[in-house]
Design a protein that fits this description.
Order of helices and strands: HEEEEEEEEEEEEEEE
Protein name: Outer membrane protein beta-barrel domain-containing protein
CATH architecture: Beta Barrel
Radius of gyration: 22 Å
Number of helices: 1
Pfam families: OMP_b-brl_2
Keywords: Signal
Structural class: mainly beta
Number of domains: 1
CATH topology: Porin
Number of strands: 15
Organism: Sphingobacterium pedocola
Distance between the termini: 20 Å
CATH class: Mainly Beta
InterPro entries: Beta-barrel_OMP_2
Strand content: over 45%
Helix content: under 10%
């Protein structure tokens, strides 16, 4: 994901509203703070007036922007086995965000919510290979570098993500901010797979296929942070590819930074 795209998303994500504090602190109406939040609907922001719990919230949002790294685990190891060396990658990244949410806040410190959004994984392959389209299992062909040398070879998966989260937050500090911890189950439905190639011989190429990527992914996740910033980790326990016996035991582990926490 290019920095320009991320910058545009962050610019969209930033809105301004007055800093609000608990009643045990004096309210300063002259100070304002930039907050990362966009919500249309019943939001979950702190209120100055008295709040009755439990209370529901939900609607359109733009938050929990994850940006980090992906690592393929082969039977619990970060080193790929001999049969899976063709999937060796120079680097891999993960990007995602939520656009819908509905939840229930039980009290000032605890809430649960179901959200929906999108997630991408980018694997920048090292080998000079072309994945086979419309194949019953994951397969590939090695391209002779004397004929075509790929400068760029990226396998991308796009998922609709549907996380169920449980979130705890501390009481407010003197500056009005909190420590937050969220955990739960991250699920996703495959929308598409793409292989993007770039070479001197053929220029830029893009092929769309599911490439036997798992049609449904699931696994635990955790986020921990302060204010609107934090760290995340997700481990998908399903196989990265389906109907491919040789790739059984390949899982995707992602970790990085999150915004709009």
């Amino acid at each position: 994901m290019k920095f320009g795209i991320l910058s545009a998303l962050l610019l969209l994500h930033i809105t301004l509203h007055a800093q609000e504090t608990d009643s045990i602190y004096p309210v300063d109406t002259t100070e304002h703070k930039t907050k990362l939040n966009i919500n249309l609907g019943v939001d979950d922001k702190d209120k100055k007036e008295a709040i009755e719990y439990p209370r529901f919230f939900g609607g359109i949002t733009f938050t929990r922007i994850d940006w980090g790294f992906s690592r393929i685990m082969d039977d619990g190891k970060f080193t790929l086995s001999h049969d899976n060396q063709f999937l060796s990658y120079k680097k891999a990244s993960n990007f995602g965000f939520d656009i819908l949410q509905v939840g229930l806040r039980f009290n000032d410190n605890f809430k649960t919510y179901l959200s929906g959004g999108f997630e991408w994984n980018y694997f920048r392959l090292e080998k000079n290979i072309l994945l086979t389209e419309n194949s019953s299992n994951l397969s590939y062909q090695v391209i002779d570098e004397n004929d075509v040398k790929y400068k760029k070879n990226v396998l991308t998966s796009t998922y609709l993500r549907l996380p169920l989260a449980f979130e705890w937050r501390s009481n407010k500090f003197h500056n009005g901010e909190r420590v937050k911890v969220a955990f739960g189950a991250m699920t996703g439905i495959l929308l598409k797979g793409t292989q993007r190639l770039k070479s001197d011989a053929n220029g830029k190429q893009k092929f769309k296929d599911n490439y036997n990527l798992s049609s449904f992914q699931y696994g635990p996740f955790v986020r921990i942070g302060y204010d609107d910033f934090g760290l995340f980790a997700k481990y998908y326990v399903n196989d990265l590819f389906e109907n491919s016996p040789a790739q059984e035991g390949l899982n995707n582990f992602t970790f990085g930074f999150t915004l709009g926490f």
